Amino acid sequence: MSDRNSRKVRVGVVISDARDKTVTVEVANSSRHPRYDKIVRTSKKYHAHDEANDANMGDTVRIMETRPISKQKRWRVVEVVERAR
Known about the structure:
The chain is mainly beta. The protein has strands at about 10-15, 20-30, 40-50, 60-65, 75-80.
């Protein structure tokens, strides 16, 4: 298996598209606490490269890990899964 196929992929919601060719994507995760059995929801923000400026605020997008593009950008937008209403 090549390295290109084993890159991490995340699905999240675009929370900011103010910058040129960059979107901020919030990826939500939920896991069960080992002791208290409560569902704990966490989220993380990723800065992703959007070459075509295709993603807008509220869109659900799929992002993939890539080489460092800038100081904060290590992800790129692969596709827009669902458009915001």
